[in-house]
Write a structure and sequence with these properties.
Structural class: alpha/beta
CATH superfamily: Glycosidases
Strand content: 5-15%
Order of helices and strands: HHEHHEHHEHEHHEHEEHEHEH
CATH class: Alpha Beta
Number of domains: 1
Strand order of the largest sheet: 1-2-3-4-5-6-8-9
Helix content: 25-40%
Largest sheet: 8 strands, parallel, barrel
Bound molecules: alpha-D-galactopyranose
CATH topology: TIM Barrel
Distance between the termini: 40 Å
Radius of gyration: 20 Å
CATH architecture: Alpha-Beta Barrel
Oligomer: single chain
Shape: globular
Number of helices: 13
Length: about 375
């Protein structure tokens, strides 16, 4: 606890002397980061002061995914998630739950009976209900918003053929929202996905949200993951996507923001976490540092994106980065393992990058 107090004091001192993200955007949107276990257990002396100083909302990188929180048919594993929530409360943050129903990082047993046969629709619905009631119920009034369903759509706008969809059909999404709302009627509920900036997938998501609302689902916002590239999405795509959801009367959150500066490799244009390719020297051009021109281009890219977000500040309520420092990012291992990537606002030493300053500047120019 003493170490924690010292870290928080250091963070507070830093916050007094330098501008912070959460203050720069106060009144526009919350600014957050996905935090890993070492961070919320206060074992990361580099990351924790940054989190405490800069962000007013957190998301859990892994500990609330099904395989972590509910690894066995007969057992939940709440200890890490409890510490995640306690960390958010200590720092007075808006705490996000991620995620209840997803095809990935979900154990195979979820979809099978004791003999390994596919569950019936009724049995899977009961299992989903039990999971959502137990997890959302445990953190009722403490976790403020939940990613209820993650990534239900394919790139062409058809429904992803996940085990959820195969066994339950299209209404698995509606059911998940119903169960989540029952478990905590005050919690914000979100549909979260990637590549919604691409038209076929966006159109399908708009239809999906329209249907959910028409059927009476309590849905607060659509989460655009925001796993961006230097040249994708275009600012027009970004803007049109936010507008398309705003027109339905839902809010938009940017939920997993990062900008990949490395060359595309095989299967790059997807955030599907199952897609990885082998690395080559050409695919990892900056192993010892980012050249200044790329650093500046990244700063400009971030500023361009934030200008679009600021223009849509009536619709956007939260912008969350997927990680704190470049060293923490999943993009060092995706879609190619063992690369050195630079997708966030803080470098491997925890120092703010030119992109940080550029983002802060956008708030001042609004
Ligand atoms: C997806 C998921 C996140 C995370 C990221 C990358 O976008 O929603 O939980 O796994 O991929 O790490």
């Amino acid at each position: 606890m003493k170490a924690l107090t010292l870290l928080l004091l250091a963070a507070a001192a830093q916050a007094e002397t330098t501008p912070t993200l959460k203050d720069a955007f106060r009144g526009m949107f919350r600014i957050g980061a996905a935090v890993n276990q070492a961070q919320f257990e206060v074992r990361d002396p580099r990351g924790v002061p940054i989190i405490a100083a800069q962000f007013n909302t957190i998301s859990p990188e892994n500990v609330l995914k099904w395989e972590s929180v509910h690894p066995r048919r007969d057992g939940y594993n709440f200890d890490p998630a409890d510490r995640y929530v306690a960390f958010g409360e200590t720092n007075k943050m808006f705490i996000i739950g991620h995620c209840l129903v997803w095809h990935s990082q979900t154990p195979r047993w979820v979809f099978e009976d004791a003999d390994g046969k596919p569950l019936t629709r009724d049995a899977l619905l009961e299992r989903m209900h039990d999971h959502i009631r137990t997890v959302v119920g445990r953190y009722k009034g403490r976790i403020a918003g939940w990613d209820v369903v993650n990534e239900a759509l394919n790139e062409d706008g058809t429904m992803r053929q996940s085990p959820w969809h195969r066994i339950l059909g299209d209404d698995f999404i509606m059911k998940a929202f119903q169960f989540a709302h029952e478990a905590d009627p005050q919690a914000e509920l979100y549909y979260n996905d990637y590549n919604l900036e691409n038209e076929p997938k966006r159109k399908a998501a708009v239809e999906l949200i329209r249907r959910l609302k028409a059927a009476g689902a309590f849905i607060t916002a659509v989460g655009l993951q925001g796993h961006d590239k230097m040249d994708w999405p275009t600012l027009e795509q970004q803007s049109a996507t936010i507008d398309a959801f705003a027109a339905l009367g839902v809010k938009v959150n940017i939920t997993e923001l990062d900008v990949d500066v490395l060359p595309r490799t095989q299967r790059q244009n997807t955030a599907d976490v199952s897609a990885t390719a082998a690395g080559t020297a050409a695919s990892n051009p900056y192993p010892v540092g980012l050249p200044d021109e790329v650093q500046q281009a990244l700063a400009k890219r971030y500023a361009d994106l934030f200008r679009v977000f600021i223009n849509h500040r009536d619709t956007i309520t939260r912008i969350t980065f997927w990680g704190v420092t470049d060293g923490d990012s999943w993009l060092n291992n995706f879609p190619t393992r063992g690369r050195t990537n630079y997708p966030l606002l803080f470098d491997r030493q925890g120092k703010p990058k030119p992109a940080f300053d550029a983002v802060i500047q956008t708030a001042r120019q609004k």
